[in-house]
Amino acid sequence: MRSRGTRRTVMGTDSKGPIDWHLRALMAEAGMFQTTELLAPLREQGIVLSREQVYRLVTKAPERLNVEVLAALCRVFGCQPNDLITVVARPAAAKKTGTGRGRDTAIGDLRPVRARLHRPADPGR
Fold first, then answer.
1. DSSP 2
2. Which of the pair, 91 or 17, is modelled with greater confidence?
3. Cα–Cα distances in angstroms (integers) from residue 65 to residues 21, 27, 53, 81, 120, in the given order
4. Cβ–Cβ under 8 Å, residues 48 and 69
5. How many CB atoms lie within 10 A of CB 108?
6. Does the predicted TM-score (pTM) go above 0.70?
7. Are 24 and 47 within 8 A, CB to CB?
8. How far separated are the first and last CA of the chain, in Å rounded?
9. DSSP 25-88
10. Number of C-alpha atoms within 13 angstroms, CB side, residue 101?
């Protein structure tokens, strides 16, 4: 079982999303270097996934993760969920309003644009 505070930053960790996913690093520490090597240990835990599903689980941070799969991974590697997942704090992006004027504009400064109506062409002319 891994002790707290022993998590290492590993190259190749997927940090494009809101979490860092460390499954590949845990597999390497356990001597597993091919994604198919994870099939049997997961099956022993009652989790049956296809080779493609395991490949995606290892190579990219999942958008959704079944709690049973997470628990099985923790049992296989003798770790805690925080050894698999690190939440990455991202600065909030400013919302775009589409006005192009910035945040200093009060709502009273905005005026509607007058609509231009066109009469349909008369096909009889």
1. P
2. 91
3. 11, 18, 12, 12, 56
4. no
5. 6
6. no
7. no
8. 88
9. HHHHHTT--SGGGGHHHHHHTT----HHHHHHHHHS--SS--HHHHHHHHHHHT--HHHHEEEP
10. 9
Q: Tell me phi and psi for residue 51, to 5 degrees.
A: -60, -40
Give the alpha-carbon dihedral of 12, 17, 19, 22, to 10 degrees. Answer: -20
User: Three-state SS for 109?
Assistant: helix
Residue 3 zone, left/alpha/beta (φ > 0; ψ -120 to 50; rest): beta
pLDDT in tens, 83-121: 999 998 877 776 666 655 555 556 677 777 888 888 887
Q: In angstroms, rounded to a whole number, what is the distance separating the alpha carbons of residues 125 and 122?
A: 6
